[in-house]
Amino acid sequence: xxxxxxxxxxxxxxxxxxxxxxxxxxxxxxxxxxxxxxxxxxxxxxxxxxxxxxxxxxxxxxxxxxxxxxxxxxxxxxxxxxxxxxxxxxxxxxxxxxxxxxxxxxxxxxxxxxxxxxxxxxxxxxxxxxxxxxxxxxxxxxxxxxxxxxxxxxxxxxxxx
Length: 161
Description:
alpha/beta, Nucleotidyltransferase, domain 5, five-stranded mixed β-sheet
């Protein structure tokens, strides 16, 4: 497999996360940075990205792609990650990779053996949740129920569909 470096942003919740996934010489390395606090996403995201690139000894021009968490999530937070990802990708002439944020949570929670169905519920505040259902198969992850915004009171009915 060819070498690559993918910078990614996740700002769909109160957590602002930046990650740098690198594969060089057959070795894969993941570097991460995060900050808790919804109001500081816009101020923190680029300095965190620059720090990760510096830790890896990389210039921005070495990036192969830019990924971002496409939500669901808070509108302002989603705009930050999407806008930064698109701006960098255009400036560097690299692809943008949107990532389903709830599917990423399912993948993270699945561990080493992800077989089975994974239901993800995430607090959306104001007595609402973001919900989705996924299944891991040999080729990747399949969305069984697309991400949706639900009233907390409606979760049980939604889950039985």
